[in-house]
Amino acid sequence: MDYRFLGASGLKITEITFGNWLTHGSQVDNDVATACVNAALDAGITTFDTADVYANGVAEQVLGAALKTRRRESLEVFTKVYWPVGPKGPNDTGLSRKHIMEGINGSLRRLQMDYIDLYQAHRFDHDTPLEETIAAFADVVRSGKALYIGVSEWNAEQLRAGQELAKSAGFSLVSNQPQYSALWRVIEAQVVPASQELGISQVVWSPMAQGVLSGKYLPGKPAPAGSRATDEKGGMNTIARLMDATVLERVQKLRPIAAELGLAMSQLAIAWVLQNPNVASAIIGASRPEQVAENVLASGVVIPPEMMADIDAALGDSIERDPAKTTSPEQRPA
């Protein structure tokens, strides 16, 4: 497993991160979730990503229990704050000082840890002054409850404004967590150049486009039993926009490219995002330990430029590039 620096910081993280969105506390039983975490550790992954909103805190609990016996200093644990949690009262959401301070304490309690390596703003909060948010994050860092601060799905303008305030407050934003895949490239035109300028890395989610780039969804065929597209607990909704016949047909054109590189389709998808030098890590999830063992083989893969061009040609106009699609809710979610 290869490591990369996170932004302009001195922190190294594994270039593949294990994440538990839509799995721990919802799609899979706790014993299977623990087995997946152990498979990640066995494969050399030391970086783990979660959020307080995942299964309303249960995902953090499951991850914390799974990592409890491991040496804390050998792990990099990330979590996030913003979306409604708990009983979802008026202050159980957003990036106010109150919610950030209560959020970090709740996450530490559920994870059974003394500190978080990376604490992330899960979206931009239009209802809270940015100065208040950044000042609260500065206090979280000074308290030792989080070592680094990152964001998720912030646009270029928000990153610049946030970094300016952060540096004035004595710390830096080191990461952004956007959706990014060979099919979803909305960060490339504006977010990536701004991030390179500001010393911010991308830790990307959905590098396999919700599993579509694994090639398992065939045009004109029913979705495989047990797949995300058949999950009525939430997975079906997240993947719906990608279950388009044209998209699925174009994805199948990647199969010979993967075969030429000696890769599974899922490995090709993960390796593709890691070709971007601004990407520090790609987040993978798993509902079975063997998925982890397969996907980590994308680490260290180099895709030649001509084959990157072949991927572009195969996917064609199914690629989404509109930078305006990096968005956060205009009002704090209830």
From TrEMBL:
Domain NADP-dependent oxidoreductase stretches: 15-314
Segments of this protein annotated with the region Disordered: 315-334
Keywords: NADP, Oxidoreductase
InterPro entries: K_chnl_volt-dep_bsu_KCNAB-rel, NAD(P)_OxRdtase_dom_sf, NADP_OxRdtase_dom
Comp. bias regions, Polar residues: 325-334
SUPFAM superfamilies named among the record's database cross-references: NAD(P)-linked oxidoreductase
Highest rank taxon of the organism: Bacteria
Position of the signal peptide: none
Family affiliation: Belongs to the shaker potassium channel beta subunit family.
UniProt-recorded name of the protein: Aryl-alcohol dehydrogenase-like predicted oxidoreductase
UniProt organism field: Paeniglutamicibacter psychrophenolicus
